Amino acid sequence: MTGSAVIKRAYDAVLAMDDADLCAAGVHDPTRLYAPVITYPAMSMMKPAGIKDLLAAAPTVQEPVALYVHIPFCITRCLFCHWVVKLGSDEDEMGRYLECLNLELARYREMLNKDRIAVSSILVGGGTPSLLGPGHIERFIEILQTNLDLSGCHQFSFEGEPSTFLGDVGAERLRALKAGGVDRISMGVQSFEDELLKKNARHHTAKQARESIERIHEFGIESVSIDMIYGLTGQTLDNWVHSLEEAIASGADAWQLYRLRIAPCGDRPGGVVRHASRNPDQYSTVDQTLVMKMLGIQMSERAGFLQHYTRIFARGPEHISYYLHDVNAKLSDVIGIGISSWGNIDNTYLLNIGNDFPRYFDAVEGGGFAVDRGMVRNPDEEARHSFILQLKNWKVDYRLFRDRTGRHPRDFFGDTIDKMLGLQLISEDDKGIALTERGRFYADQVVAQFTSTEFFPSTDSRPETLGSSQLTA
């Protein structure tokens, strides 16, 4: 099938969604890009809070936990990145940072009165964790083994950038990761178009991405997942099709498809905020992003990569992020370490110091926790948290929801559930609620219907270029 035929098929599929009823019902506004729901409430909405009050509200943890580790070191700062990163860090600073991670884990062990904390999954994100040298990776693994019970860990996922896995040093990194138990590498590829990579300040090339995927497999790491972004500055439907074709042919086992997020969602707003305001014509319209999303779905599934988890397309369910599944589907407790990392214990969000390295070092090396923001969810917000994360990413399990809230979802959201059923956005049986195919396409719009007015997600909108829908039959 030619590129134009593939695009037309996706275009027709978006038209077939026939969103007029969603617009009339106030669920979907075709002139707006809805903010992706990552946590609920969004981390950017966390308020400064007394550390003692937050930790007192979360004195126990349900093991095993999911562990998130933030490694901030980067070669360059990508245009679209809203996260805390550190450029030009030397070996000594990396070593100092790792020892702070060790101290953080030791504080959590002390607070929870544990010799080791049992974990179900680990995600090491950033930043560029694979920028750590082989020796630092070995020390990092040693820190985890000292503080954690890894006997029940069913996935150890490590994020990386393609160029860091190449050459002699790249080989040593992969040996250290494999020896340390890493069984999944999640790699930020974003595009297989060199021109787009340069425009978005990516350090690697498309060729390096292909070579690194092959090399990771050669070193025996079972699963390679890549991140792909649609809506990048300068991106077109044609080169998005080409990037998807390259992803399919690359040997990757899975990919996560993200829409470019322009509205800030982390502790350090990316350059894309200013760039988009000054160059709106270089960014995709709402219509184009919908077609790009549909292209991602259709091309992935035709190649045998099914959507086993919202926005994750994989050869099989074993290649999804178990960390994301633990956090969003199983609602596991989370411990987060590192600058700007987040955690969740029972009904309490814990968010570390963000974008202030001296203060982070002082807090941890001074004998305290790095937590400086968060919230204790009241029963209403706990119900929303439990419902929204499950619905967006997997399905709402009535038994798990009742375990966490003591009640049935219909006690909280009965009218909204019926409205979503009437719009064919969700399905319901005696065990729970799931998004339909249509509902998954409009997942962020659907879950927005279950948010409180206090925590309603912001939207990415660019009125200068994103006018009324141009999709016509």
Characterise this structure.
The protein folds into two domains: 18-39 and 379-460, Arc Repressor Mutant, subunit A (Orthogonal Bundle), CATH 1.10.10.920; 46-328, Alpha-Beta Horseshoe (pyruvate-formate lyase- activating enzyme), CATH 3.80.30. Helices cover 41% and strands 19% of the residues. It is built from 18 helices and 21 strands. The strands form five sheets. Strands 3, 6, 7, 8, 9, 10, 11, 12, 13 and 14 form a ten-stranded mixed beta sheet that branches. A four-stranded antiparallel beta sheet has the order 2-17-16-15, covered by helices on one side. It is globular and about 55 Å long. Mean pLDDT is 90; it is low at 461-473.
Domain module tally: 2
Anisotropy-based shape: globular
CATH classification class of the largest domain: Alpha Beta
Q: Any idea what the CATH superfamily of the largest domain is called?
A: tm_1862 like domain
Mean pLDDT across all amino acids: 90
SSE-based structural type = alpha/beta
CATH architecture identity of the largest domain? Alpha-Beta Horseshoe
Kindly provide the radius of gyration, computed on alpha-carbon positions and rounded to a whole number of angstroms.
22 Å
Distance between the termini: 22 Å
Unreliable runs, pLDDT <50, ≥5 residues? 461-473
**What's the β-strand tally?**
21
Strand content: 15-25%
